[in-house]
Amino acid sequence: MPTILIADDSMFQRFQTSKTAVEAGYDVLEAKDGQECLQLMLEKRPDVLLLDLNMPALDGLAVMERLAAAGAMPARIYVLTADIQDTTRKRCMDLGAYDCINKPVDQGVLGKLLAEARALLG
């Protein structure tokens, strides 16, 4: 079963997203800040990362920069953000994000994206 890491400082967002990920067939790991996210990514090497941009310790952009530098990018990164600026989206994509998902997250849309990613992972 593929593994997903959900990194968000909002407990409610992690709960909602975890439920959707389990329904899509993932084992779920959770991180409450960017530092914990980076540590879990390097230790556990999950297949998919759902990454909030605005977190304490390290923001999502810094997490992606450090993962790239360590050669530890997952198969897919979906960035969760309330920042809808084109420059932010472009920066995320340049750093390796597969897609940016606007907050509040539509769990139906997220479920479809995760099912698609799972199918590609095998």
From TrEMBL:
GO biological process terms held by the UniProt record: phosphorelay signal transduction system
Domain Response regulatory positions: 3-118
Taxonomy of the source species: Bacteria, Pseudomonadati, Thermodesulfobacteriota, Desulfovibrionia, Desulfovibrionales
Keywords from the named record: Phosphoprotein
InterPro entries reported for this sequence: CheY-like_superfamily, Sig_transdc_resp-reg_receiver, ST_Response_Regulator
4-aspartylphosphate modifications at: 52
Organism listed in the record: Desulfolutivibrio sulfodismutans
Matches recorded under Pfam families: Response_reg
Protein name per Swiss-Prot or TrEMBL: Response regulator
Keyword Phosphoprotein applies: yes
Keyword Phosphoprotein assigned: yes
